[in-house]
Design goal:
Elements lengths: L1 H23 L4 H5 L9 H20 L17 H21 L8 E5 L5 E5 H23 L11 H11 L1
Antiparallel strand pairs: 1-2
Helix pairs in contact: 1-4, 1-5, 3-4, 3-5
Length: 169
């Protein structure tokens, strides 16, 4: 039951990112990089942060170090087309990792170090819950930033996703 919940969240995450990226992609590059109010103060910086954070969590979950990730505010792609491609590939990877998790793994404890090097232990199910909640949190900030542009912010409601998925059969 819990695994299927995370599988749904993984699919929703990809759907929401595709919708948000399509709207952001309609903007000129200068608008995407323009300073805005937010924890990561531009659409580009916010979306880069989400790519970085997901790579960090996936590297921890899969015990596969990602030596290219150095900081939470790192710009992994300054070009939006490159960032979009990275996001799409990462969303597919997230779906694959979640689909491949044995259900018993959700009850295990993930032992890892923070970016600052502090050791922590967190149940895998809570790591996944955090990863998807973190995406929703910052995607919401990006959605708010998008509201200050000429682009139409898309609906990112999970119920819309579920209805679309159900209609697609």
């Amino acid at each position: 039951m819990m695994k299927s919940h995370f599988q749904t969240l993984a699919r929703y995450n990809g759907w929401a990112n595709r919708r948000l990226y399509a709207a952001v992609g309609a903007l000129p590059a200068a608008e995407i990089a323009a300073p805005r109010t937010g924890f990561f103060p531009s659409l580009l910086k916010t979306l880069n942060h989400l790519v970085v954070a997901d790579r960090i969590w996936l590297s921890r979950l899969t015990a596969t170090p990602d030596p290219d990730v150095m900081a939470l505010d790192q710009i992994v792609a300054a070009d939006f087309a490159d960032l979009s491609a990275r996001r799409a590939a990462l969303d597919e990877r997230i779906i694959g990792v979640v689909n491949g998790l044995p259900p018993a793994r959700l009850d295990e404890i993930l032992v890892y170090k923070t970016m600052a090097g502090s050791p922590f232990e967190t149940p895998v199910d809570m790591v996944l819950a955090h990863m998807f909640n973190h995406q929703t949190h910052h995607r919401g900030q990006a959605h708010g930033m998008l509201s200050g542009t000429q682009a139409q912010p898309p609906s990112l409601d999970m119920i819309v996703f579920l209805r679309e998925e159900q209609a697609a059969g």
